[in-house]
Specification:
globular, 7-stranded parallel beta sheet, 46% helix, 7 strands
Length: 263
């Protein structure tokens, strides 16, 4: 299916993650659709990703950016605008389940909020004039933790709850501008960060298997590629009348009755 993303300028915050991360998969899938993916990330990996696309005849851009800094985000948006003259979509993908809980300090809690929530606000705030001109759209990457809790991760849980609130707020606020805003929610996806977490656990292999057995559809984790595919469809004109929605790409993890697993 042609998603009609060719030539569209799409910002991905946190697109400089390790190969196999959701951000990196988003970048790769956008390039395959001949969109123009733009990475905002503090990691220099983003430059390597962009160079790879350009060397293969595509178009991409990396803006080294601390997305918690208003000044750096504003500067990055100015660079994008000057180079391409438009922004068609923003995918807010930055996130780290950092384990900042009640035992941590207030300052640590606020740093978690800045990274996992305030960064979403900053990117949209500075990109908004360009989204209004293109009648573009916004996609926020969310987490099941906002709805289920997890334990010992107050900062991340609060931030991801805020992401859901912003998604509905922006969908309402931007109706008059023809700008859609949705969220894709993820439960269990085996990214490099997830793999690193499993490696810290005692009997990690057994615990990983136990987690997979609790995922209703196929008793397996959602792949980053499956998440990227859902995201691209959502930002495309194939999804042109979808706004204010929470789209769960999770194999039924959040909503389906666990009793089904025994059938």
């Amino acid at each position: 299916m042609d998603l009609g993303l060719k030539g569209k300028v799409v910002i991905i915050s946190g697109g400089g993650g390790k190969k196999g991360s959701i951000g990196a998969c988003l970048f790769e899938h956008l390039a395959k659709e001949e969109a123009i993916p733009v990475i905002l990330d503090i990691s220099e990996r983003g430059l390597k990703y962009a160079d790879e696309i350009i060397s293969n005849g595509g178009e991409a851009l990396f803006c080294k950016t601390d997305v918690t800094s208003p000044q750096e985000v504003q500067k990055a948006i100015e660079v994008i605008s000057k180079k391409y003259g438009r922004i068609d979509a923003v995918i807010n993908n930055v996130g780290c389940n950092d384990g900042i809980g009640l035992d941590n300090s207030f300052d640590e809690f606020m740093e978690s909020i800045k990274l996992n929530l305030a960064s979403y606000f900053l990117v949209v705030k500075f990109a908004l004039p360009h989204l209004k001109m293109s009648k573009g759209n916004i996609l926020n990457i969310g987490s099941k933790v906002a709805l289920t809790g997890q334990g010992k991760t107050s900062g991340y849980a609060a931030a991801k709850g805020g992401v859901l609130g912003l998604t509905r707020e922006w969908a309402v606020d931007l109706l008059k501008d023809g700008i859609r805003c949705n969220a894709v929610l993820i439960a269990e996806s085996y990214t490099p960060m997830y793999e690193e977490w499993i490696a810290t656990l005692k009997n990690g292999k057994e615990q990983l298997e136990a987690i997979q057995q609790n995922i209703p559809l196929g008793k397996r984790m959602t792949t980053p590629e499956e998440i990227a595919s859902a995201c691209l469809f959502t930002i495309s004109e194939r999804s042109s009348h979808t706004t204010g929605q929470y789209i769960f790409v999770d194999g039924g993890y959040v909503h389906l009755d666990r009793a089904l697993l025994n059938n």
